[in-house]
Structures are given as C-alpha cells and as structure tokens.
Amino acid sequence: MISQGKCPKCEKTVHNVIIDGVDAKEFLSTSGWKGISYLCPHCKTILGVQIDPIAVKSDTVNAIVDLLMKKLRG
C-alpha cells in the first residue's frame, strides 16, 4: 500500500513517523501517564499524541502480578 498522507505543515508525503516519548497529564494535575507523540520525519511537526499502549500493557500486567502475589502470601 502506498502512503498518500501529507504533513499539514511541510506538505511532504509521510511514509513513516518518528515516535517520541512524552508525559501526558490532565489539566492542573500533577499525576499522569506515559505518552507518545508521532512526528513528521521531515519537519518534526507533531501529527498526533496518545497514551503509550506498551506502557499501559506493562503497568496492567505488573499490577495483576502484584495482586496475585499478595493473594498467594496470604
């Protein structure tokens, strides 16, 4: 499949993106989540941001393992 998407700033065709780690927080909150931003490989304009799905998966697995270990210990 040929990519037809263009960067809204530099208007070059985007065949891939740069992924950069960012902190995601609610307005006026001190806590938050790990996030990722998708950058244009040509001009580094942010094309999108989301909560890091790999970090969410890892945090979920670790929380479940911790709960199971507590149950096993009594």
What are the defining features of this structure?
elongated, alpha+beta, 28% helix, three-stranded antiparallel beta sheet, 1 helix, 74 residues
Structure commentary:
The protein is 28% helix and 30% strand. The protein is α+β, with helices and mostly antiparallel strands and 74 residues long. The chain has a three-stranded antiparallel β-sheet. The protein is built from one helix and three strands. The mean pLDDT is 93. β1 (18-25) and β2 form a beta hairpin. It has one helix at residues 53-73, and strands spanning 18-25, 32-39, 46-51. The chain is elongated, with a radius of gyration of 18 Å.
**Structural class assignment:** alpha+beta
Summed up, the helix count is 1
**Strand neighbour order, sheet with most strands:** 1-2-3
Distance linking N and C termini:
54 Å
Order of helices and strands: EEEH
